[in-house]
Design brief:
two-stranded antiparallel ribbon; 11 strands; Phage_TTP; Maj_tail_phi13; Phage major tail protein
């Protein structure tokens, strides 16, 4: 039996290289920072058909997922990766009005009670410029951490938008668990069954 979430760690982002009807591919995942918190808010749109003086049918459509990630800090390298900024020859982060955030996959894991983790992958989304707040030092230290929000959607290739797995779940492929943060998970391609032989009556 799967446990209850009791932690959060290992937030990674992998830049999306290709997503079309012929296939999908990603760069190697990069760690975003030390995880503090995360919120996942799927958006759905629904319409109700009324007939015979009451609700008759409900149709629901997936409208994307908003994800907010809080980490200890977003380094300049990570900001460049997530938001399309550049780091110039002097090592200075440059932000331009023409910068475009790339699409990518977001990966993280949550520890669960009873042992193990639940691994998450959100396959196609991009982040928006983050808000920053500052405060002067006082007698009581106050940490000022970073957060960033992104919107994730289904892929064009196969309409998948997320996958997850419990590391201690029954029948779970341990290779998938061990490689979750080294490459974006894709299930092994299944070989289609051969067509049935025709009975010629001979």
């Amino acid at each position: 039996m799967a446990g209850t979430r009791v932690g959060l760690r290992d937030v990674y982002f992998a830049k999306l290289i290709k997503d079309d009807e012929t296939g999908v591919s990603y760069d190697v995942p990069v760690k975003v920072g030390k995880a503090i918190e995360a919120s996942v808010s799927p958006n759905t749109n629904s319409e109700t058909l009324n007939a015979d003086d009451g609700p008759s049918e409900i149709e629901t459509a997936f409208g994307g997922t908003e994800i907010e990630i809080g980490v200890d800090q977003l380094s300049h390298d990570v900001q460049a990766l997530l938001l399309g900024h550049t780091i110039n020859a002097d090592g200075v982060l440059e932000k331009k009005a023409t910068d475009l955030a790339p699409y990518g996959a977001l990966l993280f894991r949550a520890q669960v009670s009873g042992g193990g983790y639940k691994l998450y992958a959100f396959y196609k989304g991009k982040f928006q410029l983050q808000e920053e707040s500052f405060a002067t030092k006082t007698d009581s230290p106050e940490f000022q951490t970073d957060s960033i929000t992104g919107t994730f959607m289904r892929r064009a290739y196969d309409e998948v938008w997320s996958r997850s797995v419990f590391t201690e779940g029954e029948g779970v492929n341990k290779t998938v668990v061990n490689e979750w943060f080294t490459k974006v998970y894709e299930p092994a391609a299944s070989t289609p069954a051969p067509p049935p032989e025709e009975n010629t009556g001979a």
